[in-house]
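#struct-pred
JK: can someone run the complex with magnesium ion? inputs below
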Amino acid sequence: MNEAVLETIALTYRYPDGRVALTELDLCIRRGERVALLGANGSGKTTLMLNLLGLLEPGSGEIRAFGESLSRKTADLKRLRSRVGLVFQNPDSQLLSASVAEDVSFGPLNLGLAHDEVRQRVADSLAAVGMDEYAHVPAHALSFGQKKRVCIAGVLAMRPEVLLLDEPTAGLDARAVEELLAVLGDLHAQGMTVVLSTHDIDLAYAWADRAEVLKRGRLVESCEASEFATAFPRFTRHGLAHPRVAEIYNAALGAGLVPCADVEPRTHAELLGALEGEPAQAEEAS
Ligand SMILES: Nc1ncnc2c1ncn2[C@@H]1O[C@H](COP(=O)(O)OP(=O)(O)OP(=O)(O)O)[C@@H](O)[C@H]1O
Ligand SMILES: [Mg+2]
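RT: done, structure tokens with the ligand placed:
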């Protein structure tokens, strides 16, 4: 089992107005994992991500990053944020500068990298999200989905070890979602740890190695990919939908249209394969 990169131990967070958003939360993210953080609106996903990055300070409990208790010193937080990148839920919380290229260069410049290196990273990151043609466009002149892509590029340009993405696919069109998953697949193959919060249950079902479900600030479910087919139907009681691939597969199974597979299909392609009589491949979920 890989080492823990981010961990919370009995983490409790209360907003200044007194609302308790996280309660006694124990969570462990290990190096190289793809973790889907699920939960209905207001369940605490964003609050958790902001705590993990030291942007909010826990009321009680502990956060550990790379094996050490999270320090509140400015230099330590800066180092943490060069190793852990966060793509905010709302792109307007993240975009700062005049042009797209300036915005994406902000983080790497802040790391003190040479200008050539920064230029290269900006170009690579914008290409990765399909926004290279917009390098000189002012960030405020972009559509919501384009802003979201630029935010993702801004974090990729930091080359973090751990990527936290808060609702990265919300507002993206189907093609952009596919491209984002391809980028995340490449990054994961290079060893990056990826945690994403999402309401897209189909995406979580297809993509994650592990799913964690929050409900009113508490962690109520935690399961590995091999348990998804049996665990996800339970998630409806936490305000989540049933994955469509599982629903169709079970209906086809019930109607005798497909034989019972050793590995349940998790992606659309695997489902089609099952319907056409091809066995699902456990490692093909990205
Ligand atoms: N700035 C704030 N001040 C007070 N309470 C807040 C604040 N931001 C969030 N909350 C509360 O904290 C709880 C968790 O909110 P959070 O934004 O973390 O949920 P979420 O799971 O990210 O929801 P969503 O799916 O809508 O993004 C909610 O009850 C919310 O009302
Ligand atoms: Mg949120």
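RT: quick notes.
The pocket of adenosine-5'-triphosphate (ligand 1) is lined by residues 15, 17, 19, 21, 39, 41-47, 89 (CB under 6 Å).
The chain has two domains: 4-242, 243-278.
JK: thanks, will look after standup
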